[in-house]
Amino acid sequence: MSHIRVAVVGAGPAGIYVADALMRKLPQVQVDLIDQLPTPLGLLRGGVAPDHQATKSIARQFERVLGKEGVRFLGNVAIGRDASYAELKSIYDVVVITIGAMIDRRMDIPGEDLPGVYGSGAFVAWYNGLPAARDLDPLLDVGSVAIVGNGNVALDIARLLGKTEGELASSDLCGHARAKLADASLSDIWLIGRRGPLDAGFSPAELGEMGELSRVAIMVDGTQLPAQVPDSLPEERRRIVEKNLALLHGFAARSEPRPIRLHFLFYAAPLAVLGEGRARRLILERTRVDNGRALMTGETFEISVDTVITAIGYRSRPFPGLPFDDRQGIVINQEGRVEPGVYAAGWCKRGPKGVIPANRTDSLAVAELIIQDVATGSGSGKPGGMELDRLLAQRDARVVDFAGWQKINAAEVARGAAQQRPREKFTRIEELLAAAVS
Ligand code: NAP
Questions:
Q1: Residue 314 Cα to ligand 1 middle (Å)
Q2: Is the pLDDT at 1 greater than 60, yes or no?
Q3: C-beta of 313 in contact with ligand 1 (< 6 A)
Q4: Smallest CA separation from ligand 1 atom 18, residue
Q5: Cys-Cys link to 367, which of 21, 183, 326, 434 (CB 3.0-4.6 A)?
Q6: How crowded is the C-beta side of 248, counted as CA atoms within 13 Å?
Q7: CA–centroid distance, residue 214 to ligand 1 (Å)
Q8: Is 330 in the pocket of ligand 1 (CB under 6 A)?
Q9: Is residue 141 over pLDDT 90?
Q10: Cα distance between residue 61 and residue 150, in whole Å
Q11: 208-245 confidence digits (pLDDT tens)
Q12: Nearest-CA neighbor of 347 among 32, 64, 108, 42?
């Protein structure tokens, strides 16, 4: 069999898992992992909470894949800007789309575009130092922040807002975000779920962490908590919900005066954000849950807020030509097959659900499809990476390779070590490109 030339677009967990699986199973494969950022690791670098360093330790495994013979990292290469999707398809035998999903879904309510309202995609990208969000400069000179959504992203944000500087000392939270959070004078954080405690997407470990924050008093209305979890829930889900419910009951029983109050507000759907020139009030409607669905009751109320952060899910951002389902915000695919020779994996394939290990399972399944599809034929004689290199050179693209990323990585770790932190990221494209050639 001659060489199979594969381009993977998106060097995050999903893309790296696909590359790894193909390298292990196809004898003659060459994989180019392409990313629009000068840095690989996708969500692991730009999404995972900076105080969850244990989760980030998987980076070492990803680095080994990126360093394999037969794998190349091409960073700072944006499809749609430096090369087109059509060009990729003509150059490579197989193209795998693993571009993730970081565009915020909208609530579609009045006032959503007021200053002081942010999507979690933008907010998380800001504190994690993604260059595109570096200048978000969120309004955090505030008393009250509402976080809409009852998933783990909402908990990540509430936890970071609630932690003291000391509690963030061992994180790799970026300097600009540390400074801003240190200046914030929060009194109230609202975590708003449109359904009830049994429906929340919280993981018990993440929910439990909320109870460990030294300056945060947790406020839960015990009357919103059922005594028990219904038998009808499937076993796996039931175990999670039971743990969450026990934690919430524990929080409801506590009463401790502390500087920040974290309110779990269930059965409340946002109707509008109001304010002159910036968000000041969040109007909500009480809901009740019937058969798993939130139904409006007609009863409205409001809370005073200064900042609203929505953590209600994400969409992918397609590049021109990519078959895209605009309603769902994902790449159109059948179990990972997009069109002949093109595949999708990860959040851009199945939506923004699941932790990093879930992406591994998904990526392995897509790699198996690719292997099945190419097993019958041989490489088609397409030119592969050499041709992409030629195009990129012609277009003066400033490509960051794996060695360049290693330099960025070493420089960031050294900057962090000087402050007893795991890393201090570069947050501007020019800084990253300079570090890559230092
Ligand atoms: P998620 O778990 O799906 O939570 C999204 C939340 O937004 C849900 O509570 C949903 O309510 C709510 N929502 C959606 N549209 C809404 C609207 N229009 N108005 C009000 N609420 C709305 O997603 P996520 O928190 O973004 O996390 C994404 C994935 O990453 C999840 O699988 C999560 O577990 C994972 N993750 C894991 C970790 C970790 O393990 N530490 C950290 C971060 C993220 P409904 O349920 O009613 O739709």
A1: 9
A2: no
A3: yes
A4: 107
A5: 21
A6: 29
A7: 25
A8: no
A9: no
A10: 31
A11: 999 999 999 999 999 999 999 999 999 999 999 999 99
A12: 42
Please give the distance, rounded to the nearest whole angstrom, from the Cα atom of residue 409 to the centre of ligand 1. 30
- Decide if pLDDT at 290 tops 60: yes
pLDDT at residue 380 is higher than 90: no
User: Which residue's CA is the nearest one to ligand 1's atom 26?
Assistant: 313
Is any atom of ligand 1 closer than 6 Å to the C-beta of 205?
no
User: What spacing in Å lies between the alpha carbon of 92 and ligand 1's midpoint?
Assistant: 36
Ligand 1 contacts CB of residue 150 (under 6 A): yes
Residues 195-209: what's their mean pLDDT?
Answer: 98
Q: Decide whether any atom of ligand 1 lies within 6 Å of the 354 Cβ.
A: yes
Q: Is the CB of 153 under 6 A from ligand 1?
A: yes
User: What's the gap in Å between 35 CA and the centre of ligand 1?
Assistant: 26
Looking at the CA of residue 105, tell me the nearest atom of ligand 1.
15
Residues 7/88, Cβ–Cβ less than 8 Å? yes
Atom nearest to 106 CA in ligand 1: 18
pLDDT confidence tier of residue 375, bands split at 50, 70 and 90: confident
111 lines ligand 1 (CB under 6 A): no
Q: Whose CA is nearest to atom 14 of ligand 1?
A: 312
pLDDT digits (tens, 9 = 90+) for 241-265: 999 999 999 999 998 899 999 999 9
